[in-house]
Amino acid sequence: MRVDGSYIFDLGRLTHMTNINTMKKLMFLLALLNFAAAPVFAAKISVSFDRNPVSVDESFQIIFTADDTPDNDPDFSSLDQDFEILGQSQSSNSSWINGQSSKILQWTLSVMAKHPGRLIVPEVSFGKDVSQSAPILVTEGVGNKAVDTDSDLFLEVEATPESPYVQSQVLYTVRLYRRVDIAQAGLNEPELGDAVIEKLGDDSNYNTQINGVNYLVTERKYAIFPQKSGSVTIKPMLLTAEVAVNNNRNFNRFFNSRTTQTKKVSSKALTLEVKPVPTTFNGQHWLSAEQLVLKEEWSGDNQQMKVGEPLTRTLTLLAKGTTVGQLPELNSSKAVLSEKGLALSEAEGQLKTYPDQPVLQEQKKPEGLIAFREEKIAIIPSKAGRYKLPAIEVPWFNSQTQKMEIAKIPETTIMAVGVADTKIAPVMPVAPVAEPLQTIAVPPLMPQQHNIWLWLAVFFGSGWLATLVYFLLKRPTKKPVLVSDKVDLRLEDNVKKLKKACADNNAVATKDALLCWGRQKFNSASLGAIAELSDARLRDEILNLNQVLYGKAAEQWQGKKLFQAFVENKAREKIAAPDDDKLEKLYRL
């Protein structure tokens, strides 16, 4: 057969083209498989409001938040039926945590409701992705208020409810209405004796109309918890503002012709009729809240617990409309019963419990305070069997329904499994095989040699004994640690100085007393560091003091709230301090 060079070249090109076509087909099939196998994730888009409820003649914000980039731009036309869109903005935030990236996108709409009622923000399409719907309550307008329309600046206060039960939450709302520019303003805090007062979140701003006049409104909210029943009065709020005026409009603007004048406005006083604990409440501890949730979680299977190995039980109590100081202890009952009919002391000996220090948190929301308590208990069975943990009940008063309710975790049965207890017989030593002893002839000692060895033994024995006595006497003895009260006395002296400085409303002296107290208590030398080591309320008061010291209002500072927060912080520390003497350490098992 004849084979020339051109034939070989054509055969190679044909083979090369065949390989290329095959590779293209394989790549196309792989791409198709990857596309088919790739999961399709839809962005989750939630809806929230800057406040709820709102008035029909007030503007408010609807916030759409997506956890990923949605399919397309939003179409807000579905809102036109019930809402008028005044403006919109968009923002995004990306982060990288523990090797995972996350992205948050937000669309903020400034809107006004077209009519009152319980309105629904409908679903909004973001291409193929869709947001959630959300309800909002729109009340009647305030347009017919008896307000002097010549007033450029005025305050309005509101308390809900005005007849609360003792230690129940009262939402206290302060609104500043203005139609003038303010260069600087200062607003005092609400004052009410025998009450816990917490500021809720940041201020909100919106527009409204009163008698046809447009006003810009700044709204601030507080949660107030009266601590005693009877008629109590919240003092008027006082606003001191530097209002911008323009006395000489023809003057050259280069020299900033605008000046300010000081203006003071005050609100009305509000009286609350605080009711005592109702007679229908028969719980041991009074707890009033709007909502309350009690739940438990286990770190493993409580029906297959292993003898000698710990299993953690987590108890969580979440309450809306109360302070964390009012939440009761959850693991107060240590009774452990066994189905085998053991005596209580025997059962407790077979099932050890080691509670951890509770986690206490408060979250300040515009709608009120949310309190959180979490307790973790390590449970270790020392013997196999079935055990019963008693039910946990938290009686509480529902301030919405005005009825007593009981949050309950039912009696829990747990099972411990393990190897049956067996006594291991002691290992008897094996007697060695007797070997014939070899007789060694030892020549008898002479009497003189015997005496020499005896005196040598006595000499060396006396020397060893004298050395032992010397080291025992010279060994440094561990002196008992004496608990000195000097530190506590110095702390108490600083507390007295702090109390006096707060009573005198002396911001500088209060700062000095706090710094001395912080150095001894936390080894911290700045107000900011001390604030971070304190609870939320005392932290806010210390930061406020720090801000006042570097402002112009140091002479007007009131120290009552700071010392009250200081005393409450000290009380919480004592309550939360673990009783180490009553707990056995895990390593002792």
Describe the structure.
The protein is an alpha+beta fold and 589 residues long. The chain folds into 4 domains: 45-139, Immunoglobulin-like (Sandwich), CATH 2.60.40; 153-274, Immunoglobulin-like (Sandwich); 288-417, Immunoglobulin-like; 488-577, no CATH class. It contains 8 helices and 30 strands. The strands form 9 sheets. Strands 20, 22, 24, 25 and 26 form a 5-stranded antiparallel beta sheet that branches. A 4-stranded antiparallel beta sheet has the order 1-3-5-4, with no helix packed on it. A hairpin with a 2-residue loop joins strand 4 (83-97) and strand 5. Helix 4 (486-503) runs antiparallel to helix 5. It starts with a helix and ends in a 13-residue tail after the last helix.
User: Which geometry do the CA atoms define?
Assistant: extended
CATH structural class of the largest domain: Mainly Beta
Classify the beta-strand content into a percent band.
35-45%
What structural class do the secondary elements suggest? Answer: alpha+beta
Largest sheet: 5 strands, antiparallel
By CATH, the topology of the largest domain is: Immunoglobulin-like
Termini separation (Å)?
Answer: 93 Å
Number of domains: 4
Mean pLDDT: 77
CATH architecture of the largest domain: Sandwich
Computed over alpha carbons, the radius of gyration is 39 Å
